[in-house]
Every structure is written in C-alpha cells, then in structure tokens.
Design goal:
Helix 8 runs antiparallel to helix 10. The chain has a 3-stranded antiparallel beta sheet. The chain has a 3-stranded antiparallel beta sheet with strand order 6-7-8, with no helix packed on it. A 3-stranded mixed beta sheet has the order 13-10-14, with helices on one face. The protein has 577 residues and is an alpha+beta fold. The protein has 5 domains: 272 residues, no CATH class; 71 residues, no CATH class; 38 residues; 35 residues; 40 residues, no CATH class.
Length: 577
C-alpha cells in the first residue's frame, strides 16, 4: 500500500525524474533538482568510475570501497592545497565573488508573483538559513571539494527548521538502489551523529560542480585541474630552497704551508690544524655528552688545502657561492596553475602582466562567467531547499515553483557591457526609423530578435504605457484622474426617463415630495416670516403708482420751477390738489 503520510508523499515527490507543475494558464514549469537532464545520473560514467567499481554491483548502484578510498585521498590533497597561499586565496575569491551584496545589501534576490510565497522564502533564507553569513563557507567548501552536503531538518506544517553540514569524507551518494525506481537517490553517512546513516533525497541538499563525467555522481573541485601542478610547483620550490641553502653561502679556502713535512705526515698535520681552528661538536646518543673526537667535513664547511714550495705561504681565500638566478621553471608552472584556477593574476597580487585597465577588464568578464557557473549550481540546490520548505508549508500546487532565486553578478564591467549593447541596439533602431530605411517589423525581427507573438505583446503594453502616461499628466496638470471619472451619457433625456422608470419599477409607498411651506416642515408653513413682514410694511400698489406717473405731465405747472426732478414732496402736493 502506498505511503500517504507527509514524509511518504515528500519522498515520492523527490524520487520522480523531475518536478513538473502546471499553472492556471496551462504553462508547465520543470524543476530538475538532480540535474538529470545534464548528467542522467550514473549512465554517463566513463572509464574512470567503472574501473573503481566492483564486479558484483548491479545496475551501477552503490559505489565500491575502493572508489570511496580514492575520493578520501583526493580530499586529503585538497586539504594540503588549502595551506598554499595562492590556492587558499583563490578559494576565498571564489566564495567572495559568488556571495556579493547588491546596492540594497541583499545577498540573494527572491522574486515571486505570489506575495505569500515570497514572504515565506524570505523568512526561510534570511531568518532560518541565515544565508548572509552561512552562504560564504558553503560556497567555499563546494569549490574546494567539488561537493557540499547540507542536511535538512523538515517538520510537517513547519517546513525546514534547521540545517546541518555533513563532511564529504563520510557522505556517499547512492543512485539506483531501488530496483523498482531507477530515479531514486539516497545518501549514506558513516559515523552519523544522529544514528540514521541513510537519508532520502529531500533530506540532503547536495551542492556539486558538474564539470566532468569522470567524477559522477559527485562534483569536480575548482582546484582539481591545478592539483598536479601544485605538486610539481612544491617540488620545484623545495629544490630551489635547498640549492640556495647549500650552494649559496660563501666558503673560505685555507691554504696552509706545510714546508718540509714528509708526505706521510701531511694528513696528521692538517688534521691538527683543523681541530685547532674549528671543531664541530656531536652529541653521543648513548651518553648524551658532546663528543669532540669527530670533525666531519660537509658542504657547508670551509676547505683546508696543504701547499708546499716557493714563496706560497699560508693564505685564506673566499670561494663565492653559486647563484640560482634563473626561476623560469617555477614561473612556467605558476602560470599554468593560474590558468587552471581561471582567476586574473591581478586579483592574487601578481600584476606584472597587466598592461592597462583594458586587459584587466577583459579578464574580469571571463572570470565573471566562471562565477556565474558556480552561482547557477548554488541557486539550483537553494531552489530544491525552497521547494521542500513550501511543500511542508502546505503549498503543493503550481505555486510551489512560482519563484526565482538569483545571486548578485560580481562584475560591474560585465553588467556595463550588457547595458552598452542594448544602448547601441536602441540607437541603431532610432537611426533606421529616422531615415525611413526599414520598417518597425524588420527592426523587431533583426535587431531585437522578437518573434511575431512577442511583438504583438509589446505593442499592447506600449498602449498601456501611453494610457498611464496620459493619466499621470492629467493628474499633475488638472488634478483629475481620468480613470475614475464617470462617462457622460449620450442622451440626457433618455437617461432621465430611464431613472424615472427604475424608480417607478421599485414599487412600494411613493416617495413624498418637499415639505417647504407646509405644516410638516420643521419651521412651519411660513419658515421665513414673509406674511408677518408684509403686513407691517406699507407699499404703494402698482395701479396707484401708474396713476401718479400719468398725472405728472398735466400738473407740472403746480411744481416748482427750480426743480426738474420728481421728489416725494411734489408728489404729495399734487395729490392734495
């Protein structure tokens, strides 16, 4: 019966060939966590791996003990190489350049259309895994050994709660151990402190640099190509130091006049002279005392030569040491090791071959591509960790892979070259369209390399950009947002009739009209007091006013001659008469 528990479902998920999700629009996204599309597990192993395998293994399952012993011997060489100043600096540079921070101080960039997924992953990488501090040693160990094993502690409903690095000496990757499932992958840890020893694929994140099929199913170290050169260079440096120590010091030649001493007595005489001038003490191993009996002559001591006859006499001459001024062999091996490391010499302090900034810039771009390859490996395993965490959190649909992780590119020159390339493309397109030489479709096809569907999508988005630009300009100039303004009706009368019909169709008690000038009004029937003010004020009626005006011309003779204006007094006198 199939295991339907949480860990059973998680094991089944990571025993598949790849994790495939389908979103609402029918788009498929494939996550190849074990790089099966690149390596196809153990089927790509060639002669080196097959030699190390025992005869009784079936279908290339577990590795033989001889193969594991060879891996451990290689790892010991890597540990010794880490003591070399050049190689240690190279490993530090790999880790430094792969874990740079951007202008906002972020080591890793997380992007997702789902805000919940992005918040969960931010919490995972920055709060639980603490990648700001832990990513550097992880990358360095991966570059040093070619592999790095990170144990994941997974809890149902909680996700990944802790991680534990495992030693490459004790960890093995087992492939095709299940005869019913050729895609199964397990990990075996000898001397496991947890006592479990065997782990499923989702419990171990295996960071590996897949550069050579000879090393499958493991990765190849960044310093492996320089391992043989490092041994040769170490021997050459030791030989140079021994030569300088033994041959470089100056020595003295003592020419001692032996006069008429018989030849048979010359040796005894010279020995007595040497013992008097210089004695080398030796420790007796049996008693621990100094023994001055022996005076053995070696290359670092002076020479004593007997001379006879003539006026030679006793003299002391200096014998110059041999100079070792030629180190072309060491430089040759060192240059080959720099080529194997793929690091610019200026980064390691060797600037004699840098003629100018252009040379360093070109080397910087090539080195940036090497760092990108390391970052892709790191991002692949970090994506696997993220999928395990999201699955344990309950996100098991297409949102489980709805995210992208990226690390900061170390080369600003590399980024600048890409920006300059796009600037040149835009300038060329403007020149072509300005001269009316070719159409926009030709520019899209041949300069920007856009397909027909992509061109249509970009045209639609350009229209949206124009609408947004008009909206922003309207808000800035007029203070009105065109997107929120109601559209005016085409026919006002028709709209009014439509509103009346809607009101009529609602039914129920009809709405009361206005209460102004009625008893129901809060201020009464006469809220402004017009009747009261009218009763107290005397007004001349319109008929009476017309009578006054019509009689003015006939009775003008009764008016005073000195006035031409009608006033109230004249009108009153006229009415009295």
């Amino acid at each position: 019966m199939a295991d339907t528990s949480f860990f059973g479902r998680l094991t089944k998920l990571f025993r598949t060939k790849a994790i495939v999700t389908v979103d609402d629009k029918g788009r498929r996204k494939v996550f190849d966590g074990d790089e099966r599309q690149q390596t196809n597990l153990s089927s790509l192993r060639d002669r080196y791996t097959k030699i190390q395998k025992s005869f009784f293994e079936q279908a290339g399952g577990a590795q033989s003990m001889a193969y594991q012993q060879v891996r451990r011997e290689v790892f010991r060489d890597y540990d010794a190489m880490d003591n070399d100043p050049i190689l240690a600096s190279a490993l530090d540079i790999y880790a430094d350049e792969s874990t740079l921070k951007n202008e906002f101080g972020d080591v890793m960039l997380i992007h997702s259309d789902n805000e919940k997924v992005q918040d969960i992953l931010n919490n995972l990488f920055y709060d639980i895994l603490n990648v700001e501090f832990n990513l550097w040693p992880w990358v360095r160990n991966m570059c040093k050994y070619g592999d790095f094993f990170l144990g994941l502690e997974v809890g149902e409903g909680k996700g990944i709660v802790n991680v534990t690095p495992h030693s490459v000496y004790n960890t093995e990757r087992l492939e095709r151990t299940d005869p019913t499932n050729p895609n199964s992958v397990k990990f075996k840890i000898t001397e496991d402190p947890n006592g479990k020893e065997e782990y499923e694929n989702f419990e171990i994140a295996h960071f590996r640099l897949l550069a050579d099929t000879n090393w499958l199913p493991y990765g190849k170290s960044m310093i492996e190509n320089g391992r043989r050169l490092w041994k040769q260079l170490s021997l050459m440096e030791d030989a140079m130091l021994i030569h300088r120590i033994m041959r470089a010091p100056e020595k003295r030649v003592f020419k001692i006049d032996i006069g008429n001493i018989p030849p048979t007595e010359v040796d005894n005489y010279m020995q007595r002279i040497i013992n008097k001038m210089k004695k080398v003490p030796f420790v007796d191993k049996n008693t621990g005392d100094y023994n001055l009996k022996y005076n053995m002559q070696n290359l670092t001591e002076d020479f004593y030569l007997p001379v006879r006859g003539g006026d030679s006499g006793t003299s002391i001459d200096n014998l110059a040491g041999m100079e070792y001024s030629s180190i072309e062999d060491i430089d040759y091996l060192k240059n080959k090791m720099f080529a194997a490391l793929k690091i610019p010499r200026a980064y390691l302090g060797y600037e004699e071959n840098v003629n100018g900034k252009a040379t360093l810039a070109a080397e910087d771009v090539r080195f940036a591509r090497t760092i990108e390859r390391i970052q892709r490996t790191v991002v692949s395993e970090l994506s696997k960790i993220a999928i395990v965490h999201l699955y344990a959190q309950g996100i098991q649909d297409s949102e489980m892979t709805n995210f992208t992780l990226s690390l900061v590119n170390p080369s600003t020159i590399y980024e600048q070259e890409k920006v300059n390339l796009w600037s040149e493309k835009v300038r060329l397109a403007q020149d072509i369209q300005g001269l009316n030489m070719l159409s926009k479709d030709w520019v899209y096809d041949n300069i920007f390399k856009l397909s027909g569907g992509e061109q249509d999508v970009q045209r639609v988005r350009m229209l949206e950009d124009l609408k947004d630009r008009f909206r922003f300009r309207s808000i800035e100039d007029e203070g009105n947002d065109p997107a929120t303004e109601d559209e005016e009706p085409d026919d006002i009368e028709e709209s009014i009739e439509k509103i009346k019909q809607e009101i009529k169709n609602k039914g129920g008690r009809p709405r009361e009209g206005g209460t102004y000038g009625k008893d129901k009004h809060p201020l009464g029937r006469d809220p402004l007091g017009d009747k009261e003010r009218t009763s107290k004020r005397s007004r001349t009626s319109e008929d009476k006013a017309l009578t006054y005006i019509n009689g003015i011309s006939s009775k003008r003779k009764y008016l005073h001659e000195d006035t031409d204006m009608l006033n109230e007094d004249n009108i009153l006198e006229d009415t009295e008469n």
